[in-house]
## 1
Amino acid sequence: MLRSVMTIMKGSALAQLIGFLILPLLSRSFGPEVFGHFQAFQSIMMLVIVVVMLRYEIAILRASDGPELTHVIALCGLLTLVTTVVFTGVLLAALAMGWPRFLADLGFGWWWLSLSALAVGWAQIFSYLATRDAAYNTIASAKIAQGLTNAGTSAGLAIAAPIGSSLILADLAGRLLNGYWLARGRLHALGGIFGTSWSDLRTVARRFSDLSLISLPGAVLSTAGSIMTPLFIYASFDASTAGQFGLVDRAVGLPVALIVGAVSQVHMGNLAEDLRLGTGTARRSFRRLSLLLVGLAFLPTLACVIFAPMLFQLIFGPGWNEAAKFAQILAPAYFLGLVSGGINMTLTIMGRQITQLGWDISRFAAMALLWLYAPGADWAVEKIVVAHSILLCLFSLAQLLLCYHALPRTHVEGAEARPAS
């Protein structure tokens, strides 16, 4: 398992290194408001990623080989098209009504969101197929290709045509190439989808209905809790302040998120296999993975807390002092988020959707209460970010405990737990 984790993490690390190396050029070519608009785009896309297939993409890991897998893939493809059309209609209606207000003030066209939704659906289908096949080298290569495309496109636009949507265009280009790379050698999996009947679709939809009925609401609430602060900073303050927050997310949060995604893919595949075969190694793998992530994240977190003001000034240039303060405040949350994020699908794979839903509801409620109270109390943005960071830390710790408790005990642990006769 550790070898698989390291394979994908190498790809994620290299992809992020490429993106990080280009950031000094971008931070000097674009003002904070461009990063603010991109942060709003990314926040909305995080929610789209969750709902685009109503969580049925997870069924790709759980489906049996043969017709059932084919029918699940067909269902995922159809849902991608339907949800994109519905999402576009809702977005256009919101823009026409002028509510919520921040949508009318977006610094980019609505079509970027729709195109990205299709790209996300395409990439996720093949990403889960690659995870099912344990094709971790392919996943790592796809991440590197995405990073190179994103960096090359954004750098080229920064030099030749620094328009407001440059970062969004580069992001879309990277997603498209990621999907293409993952699809190579797996297009045969689509061979039978056009022969799928409505009856077949209904059958697999019912079989895996727990994903859409229980896992989806929880995932929506979890994601909404994650994006609430960047979106409300964008809506309550201004695009420039949101851009300061967005640079932190791009320089620190995005690398953490991609590492988390890579580790989570391996953890999902191994946990699903462990449950199918009953090997009894789930808890031991969980502990080893958690300790690996703690060791990986400790020194970078410490460096961020101590040296962020100097590093941000040196790397990103003048005008990003507020971003450095945000980075220091959020460092503990990123640390614990990296550790807990790698195992964040444990409860879903274990079938503990109710427990996961309870965690998601609690986290969403805490973030909603923060934003219901803070603006009325006239809190400064830094105070809000401090409260946001504390809440993230508390819920990351709670998730670690819940996931570990849900895993089946090994035979050794079971023997130790039994009292001596």
## 2
Amino acid sequence: MPAAGNPPPGSTQATQVVAGPPPRRPRWLVPGVIALVVVLVAGILWWVSTPSSPQQPTGNAPVAVPSGVGPAPTGTGKTLDVAADGSKQFRTIADAAAQAKPGDTVLIQPGSYEGFRAPASGTDGQWITYEAAPGGAVEINGGDGSDNGRIDLSDRSFVRVAGLSVQKADRFGIYAEDTSNIVLDKVEVADSRHGGIVFLNGSKITVQYANVHGNNSLGTDAEMEAISMDNVDGFEIVGCTVTGNGEEGIDAKYESRNGRIHGNTASDNRGPNIYIDSAYDIVVSDNKVSGASGPGKTGIMLGVEDYSDTRRLANIDIVNNVVTGNNGGGIGFFTESDGTFSDVRIVNNTIVGNENAGLVLGNTNLSGTNVLRNNLFAGNEQDVKGRSGSTLTADHNLFAAAGVGTDNVTGVPEFVDQPAGDLRLEPGTPGTGAGSPDGAPPADIAGAARPQDKAPDIGAYQTVE
């Protein structure tokens, strides 16, 4: 979880540290000595069973991450029908799950159901699917599958959950520890006391088109985030709506790696709306990020917290995002006490109307090759706050006043319809045709192609004339 946010990237000049509210410790540990002992023992067992340390970051090449595990195969086995009114084969999901074999589909009719823990795994090509039948909402709103979650997928693999609505969990909505090859498809997770969707120590995880809202109802006492990836190797979070949660929106942390967070709407969470903490080889692209409300909380934050074993963030792409109206700034860097940041690329983002600053730098020390290019800053309290203490290549950005780097544009752009949220540039306004093709994504956030034979526009959108 992020601590309150001050620190961050910017120019190549020496930096001043801007004091901020004291950082909070991560909250995923259960209070009490017993819980601490359990966690320590689990950690020791995990370390002993792990053959080697996580793979080191790949250097300064742009991240090329496969699209998660892709779509899970459709069921090839039998269908196990569930209806709460007794009109089908099973009354409870748990009873059907106990009979499910690889390739089977547990088809759940509209109604209200108890939570469940998945008792079995599928196999490669023979997934087990838990799916809502058409015709109405399937609400998982009573009882928990375990002490950790209303639905608990821990220790399972090749499982798909589709169309279920998980409501008001006592702890987490959907919880999965030591899992692999899991797909959550079009699920809703709402109003959990703690985090919404939590993956811990997993691999090959996809969360797609989920609606995650109103979680962390305990506020700052809640554990985990709306969507948490904690030490997950290979993940994709795509097309999700993550809004109105009492802590972070989407959080990839503590050695999570090889991930892609794209095409999401993350808004009005306490914030940050998207947080990358002590993780590496991750792409954050094509997201709309707005309204982080917590003190010092930026829309997108890159951080290093003390809870991490490595205190290292590396090889991160922040591209094609629209970042607006966040309380603590647009994009920010945070260091709890010390750590390393390297090979960060912030390219073709539209950063508009944020309090504090568009880019919050603090005195972040960067190493490797770091790029700030083709970003549009407009209407922020100030464009850049703080100075980077290390190497940063900054060029072809649009600032309201003199900014950092070279080949910049200074001015106030005109948008197609800013009050309606349409932040495409009007033809001929500052920023059009003023970017660099070097590292620019081939298409903009709306899918429009950027030109290959001339300079692209600055920002997340490409003007189509």
